[in-house]
Specification:
Layout lengths: L2 H13 L2 H8 L3 H15 L4 E3 L4 E3 L1 H25 L7 E7 L5 H14 L3 E7 L2 H9 L5 E5 L7 E5 L4 E8 L12 H4 L3 E5 H4 L7 H5 L8 E6 L2 H9 L4 E5 L11 E5 L5 E2 L1 E6 L6 H14 L2
Parallel strand pairs: 3-4, 3-5, 8-9, 8-10
Antiparallel strand pairs: 1-2, 5-13, 6-13, 7-10, 7-11, 7-12
Helix pairs in contact: 1-2, 1-4, 2-3, 5-11
């Protein structure tokens, strides 16, 4: 299985058309068709369903698309690492992160590094902790910024200096908007939108679930989410109230939404993590040194 052919397959999956993919790859359509047929023969699986106007993926094709993208990403990352082994510090750094205002500390380090080493490029992947750690474990990311609750025991890690505050995002015309803080009793019988990461029991201790004093299962969770943007859209539509972190949703004067913190106060720490015993490129090593300089004990 050649990387080149996997890239051909990904192009077809993206375009939904062999003709369009052939044009983007600067290949003839018969050449691309033959390569795809040979790939199906090699894997002994039908990967594509060829319609009159559109090509769709079979279930096996969907599996290959995910794996092929991971393989191509890994090859490109490896090539980048070897290109960076020169006297000049250059290369690519891949960082996965959840939605958090505390990313401003990472942004400060990125800015500082790029002012001195403009040939270092940063690539940010947004996702929840499960997505970020999966990509980190596969070597597709160099670093992850994780919001508690999450297990970090298998990683080297540094704590960021601020914590995120939990609260409720709601419409400004809702009855709870008159309150300055939201208590547990205020949430009973309300339609709630909850973060899947926060409600997953990933360790013996989950401070988010503990805040609810055993009542979480009795609350009316009408939807869950992994990133808050779409949850905010649903709140605007009047579907419910979103329990989320502060400063992630537009609650400005012009917005229809507002944020009210939970009481008693509930905060989540943030950790920058990377794989133990990882061999860093010169660029990634520089990033670690900057992290340790600013946040190390």
């Amino acid at each position: 299985m050649e990387i080149r052919v996997l890239k051909y397959f990904l192009a077809v999956a993206k375009e939904g058309s062999i003709t369009a993919a052939a044009n983007s790859l600067h290949l003839t359509q018969p050449t691309l068709t033959r390569q795809l047929q040979e790939l199906e023969k090699e894997l002994k699986q039908k990967l594509l369903i060829r319609g009159k106007h559109k090509v769709t993926l079979t279930p096996e094709g969907m599996i290959l698309r995910k794996r092929a993208q991971e393989i191509v990403d890994m090859v490109e990352k490896t090539q980048s690492e070897f290109r960076s082994i020169t006297d000049t510090i250059a290369g690519d750094i891949y960082i996965g992160c959840g939605e958090t205002d505390v990313m401003k500390y990472i942004a400060e380090i990125i800015k500082e590094i790029q002012q001195i080493y403009p040939d270092i490029k940063f690539h940010i992947h947004s996702g929840n902790a499960e997505d970020v750690t999966e990509r980190l474990d596969k070597g597709l990311l160099d670093f992850g910024v994780l919001i508690q609750p999450v297990d970090v025991y298998k990683y080297d890690h540094l704590s960021l200096p601020e914590k995120d505050t939990w609260g409720v995002v709601m419409r400004k015309d809702s009855r709870l908007a008159k309150k300055k803080q939201i208590r547990l009793e205020d949430l009973k019988d309300l339609p709630l939108l909850n973060s899947r990461q926060a409600i997953r029991k990933t360790s013996d201790k989950n401070q988010f679930l503990e805040w609810f004093k055993g009542e979480f299962e009795n609350l009316n969770t009408v939807a869950t989410f992994n990133l808050v943007y779409n949850a905010a859209v649903m709140v605007k539509a009047g579907i419910g109230y979103s329990i989320t972190l502060d400063k992630l949703v537009d609650t400005s004067k012009e917005s229809e939404l507002c944020f009210r913190p939970l009481y008693p106060k509930l905060e989540s720490a943030l950790e920058v993590v990377w794989k133990k015993y990882q061999i860093f490129s010169p660029a990634a090593k520089l990033f670690v040194e900057k992290l340790q300089e600013k946040f190390g004990n």
